[in-house]
Amino acid sequence: MILEDTIAALSSPAPAAGQISVSILRLSGPQTFPVLEELTGRSPLPRQRGLFHATFIVEGLPVSAAVYTFAAPHSYTGQDMAELHVLAAAPLAERLLARLTSRLRPARPGEFTLRAYLNGRMDLTQAEAVAQIVSGSNAAQVAAAEKLLAGHLSKTIAEIRNALLDWLCQIEAGLDFAEEQIQILPPAQAVRILQTLRNQIEQMLSGPIQYERMIDLPSVGIAGAVNAGKSSLLNALLGRPRSIVSNIQASTRDVVRDILSLGDLDCVLFDCAGLSARPPQEPLDALARQAALAALQKADLVLFCVDISKSARQEDAVIFTSLRSRPLLALATQCDRVPEQELPARLSRLQEEFDCSFLAVSSQTGLGLSALREQMRQKLLSLRGGTEENQTSAALSQRHRRILSEVSDSLAEASRQIELGREEIAAMLIRTAWEQLGGFERENIEEHILEQIFSRFCIGK
Question: Is the Cα torsion angle 22, 28, 33, 35 positive or negative in sign?
Fold first, then answer.
């Protein structure tokens, strides 16, 4: 980890081919200001936070940029730092970056945030939050990661550590004055304190969003009998034609996927071949059904569609039984084909036959689609560990969960040792728990752990 090098990188998405947009080029290190002075012809530049406009000549072409400067230690990385905001096409931005990296070292993935951590500008949980915000695929992920960046988790951990240290001082004082038979803290009270702290840790493990479970988009499959209105529903939810809609049976053969936005949550929505209780007549039908079942078994949520305009339910019942082990929402589709006055009675019959609630929807009129979107959102948040109450909780990475689990085990064993009258062993376990919690921030972080954490970042962050 060479902090003396000055690094440079593109820290924003590259402009799309043929388009002009703002690219942000980032520099950090002791040569930041000298290189800017050389490239802009402005010398000396004041070593302070500032903004000026400059023109860079790139292969004979002028490139204008807004240059933001930040002096150490009052910058993101704690070093001299600058950002060049360039409005240009991708080739010009790339050539300007090449001019910078001909004088400076190209940054490695996550190196800007790594420097911020090593220079004390943020703790490790906040550094991990930056990676989570960058890679977050929906608002629930980003909100959880922002809690980490704001220091929410660090503050909670610090409070637990302080409580452990206070209790450790008391138990060790009791051991030091054992010959005087002074009992600083009764064993029963000590066990209660440890149990309270352990309960707090267990709540942290069970309550917040688990980032690793949220990092991939959840999948939602549309299932039902042939011509149950699945393809029309997919198109209606997406707001554009994506799947073929036809009166010919079994027109959908392959699995059709697209990204559906549910406000603060995105998901992969897919349509597949209609299911049937009858054996397939052709090899192609068999392959289509096999692909459909495989996709539905892996889906986070299934939308089970029943055509409410039909009276025969035997095939629907067989399909429902095969999907019942999956999380699902039951939908009464094709409601536009039923007279409005008959709809309540037909819904009631469906609910009696399948012993579950059905939502009435119509891809043609839009009936029930808004309610369906909200039910999908709520169900996916619940399945993925994020409810309305905790979707803005701090996201816990796998490293966090491992440390908290180890601390919980240490405190459980410490309580047992106190009940057995082995205060010295209990003190050792409490000290171990205190040291384990230190791993959230700066204590005892080995270089290979840092490399593993920051390897998930992208270049420029």
Answer: negative
Note the pLDDT tens digit of each residue in 383-422.
Answer: 765 444 444 344 455 667 777 888 888 888 888 888 888 8
Helix or strand run (H / E) with residue 9: strand 7-10
Token pair recorded at residue 297 = 């078994």
Angle (nearest 5°) at CA 437 between 124 and 395: 55
Q: Is the dihedral of CA 85, 90, 92, 97 positive or negative?
A: positive
Q: State yes or no: cis peptide before 73, omega within 30 of 0.
A: yes
Q: Give just the sign of the alpha carbon dihedral 367, 369, 371, 372.
A: positive
pTM for the full predicted model: 0.42
For residues 64 and 60, what is the distance between their CA atoms, to the nearest angstrom? 13
CA angle (233 as vertex; 254, 276 as ends), nearest 5? 50
Q: How large a percentage of the chain has pLDDT more than 70?
A: 69
Query: Please, are residues 297 and 247 in contact by the beta-carbon 8 Å criterion?
Result: no
pLDDT tens per residue, range 93-146: 888 888 888 888 888 877 887 888 778 777 666 656 555 545 544 444 445 544
- The neighbour count for residue 302, using CB atoms within 10 Å, is 23
| Look-up of token digits 């390897």 | 455
Q: What is the mean pLDDT of residues 31-55?
A: 87
Return the residue matching tokens 């409810």: 387
Average pLDDT over residues 52-64: 82
Proportion of the chain in helix, strand, coil states, percent, rounded to 5: 45, 20, 35
Q: How many Å apart are CA 261 and CA 377, to the nearest integer?
A: 9
CA-nearest of 164, 130, 156 to 145 is 130
Cα 285 to Cα 273: distance, rounded to the nearest angstrom: 9
Q: Given pLDDT bands bounded at 50, 70 and 90, which one contains residue 213?
A: very low
Judged by DSSP in three states, 373 sits in helix
HSE-up (13 A, CA, CB side) for residue 100: 28
Which of 51-55, 95-99, 209-213 has the lowest average pLDDT? 209-213
